[in-house]
């Protein structure tokens, strides 16, 4: 098996997602792979805050990024974390859309051979009933998926 050449990782700026980013950075660095750090965000509305904290079903804080400026800040900070973990070539991608669709689209466009996500959402009741980002991308991805243990 050859080393991965292009790796995609998703982040929402939460500590849980940054754990996955650091793991992706270390793996990309070890493989000499190009790393795409992706943040999906919602377009802002007048009554929205730029980053809305919410309480997840399992009790952990989650974030839904709203607006392009917070999304750009999120990928910029994540890129710094990835480089500190060992990544060499890092691309920052902030896109309006749902996390699952955005990640799968970037995987296709970047011709990635590995997608990395954190496990947050897999153990929650809501995640089991309605689906979660890690479960959905694992089921739908055409490339290898690494689910990093980032919670609990």
Automatic annotation (TrEMBL):
Domain UspA span(s) in chain numbering: 4-149
Residues covered by region (Disordered): 50-73
Pfam families: Usp (PF00582)
Gene3D superfamilies, A to Z: HUPs
Stretches of the chain forming a coiled coil according to its record: none
Family: Belongs to the universal stress protein A family.
Protein's UniProt name: Nucleotide-binding universal stress protein, UspA family
Organism: Geodermatophilus obscurus
